[in-house]
TrEMBL record:
Residues 5-165 form the UBC core domain. One of its GO terms (molecular function) is ATP binding. Keywords: ATP-binding, Nucleotide-binding, Transferase, Ubl conjugation pathway. InterPro entries: UBC, UBQ-conjugating_enzyme/RWD. Pfam families: UQ_con (PF00179). It is an enzyme of class 2 (transferase). The keyword Nucleus does not apply. Its EC number is 2.3.2.23. The keyword Transport does not apply. PANTHER family: (E3-INDEPENDENT) E2 UBIQUITIN-CONJUGATING ENZYME. This is E2 ubiquitin-conjugating enzyme.
Amino acid sequence: MVKRGWLKKIQQEWTILQNDLPDDIHVRVYEERMDLLRACIVGAAGTPYHDNLFFFDIFFPPDYPHEPPSVHYHSGGLRLNPNLYETGKVCLSLLKTWAGTGNEVWNPEGSTVLQLLLSLQALVLNEKPYFNEAGYDKFVGKADGEKNSITYNENAFLLSCKSMMYILHKPPKHFENFVKEHFTCRAPHILEACNAYLGGDLVGHARDSTYISDDGCKSCSTGFKIMLGKQLPKLVAAFSEAGIACGQ
């Protein structure tokens, strides 16, 4: 039997999401399964995840909010971030799946699903995910660390492109139309960015010739350009198969 306090808390979560959800996070709730919701985060500009879609299933346990929700990431079998595993596991302090202190950890009195989604967007799908790896934050600003970060971003973008193809082929239930509309809108920008990267621009900074990385690098690697050159026709084909005109 559903506890009245649990039901009230879930309804409060719905209200917060309805009122305060940013434009680049989308949520689907289910009146017949109030213990579940599905969220989609749009990859932000300036990150190796730009323009991609990231889907998460969120489960509210019976003792919520005394325990945090459980979260499953739709990985498509890809590991494109230190915090997001191929198995769907999400490592985040708010979920008690990662170490943390203070506001980083779940607080039954104040933590919300909105806070969780914003954390996934800002702390996980960020500009330099390489430094999310345990212990790597000490290399921020150091030449080797920044160089490794650029390499990680290149690989993350290649995997993000594969993820786009997977999502186009198998969009999550109840988000089929949204996936089609999103990529119809963003496909030209995605392909423009790919061509900019093939021209040497750093990942996340397409058409920004003035950008220089923290280690002084101005151009992406030759290996990345070769791999992207092989992958780009497949991405174009995936858009075309989904009925998305991309002018390539």
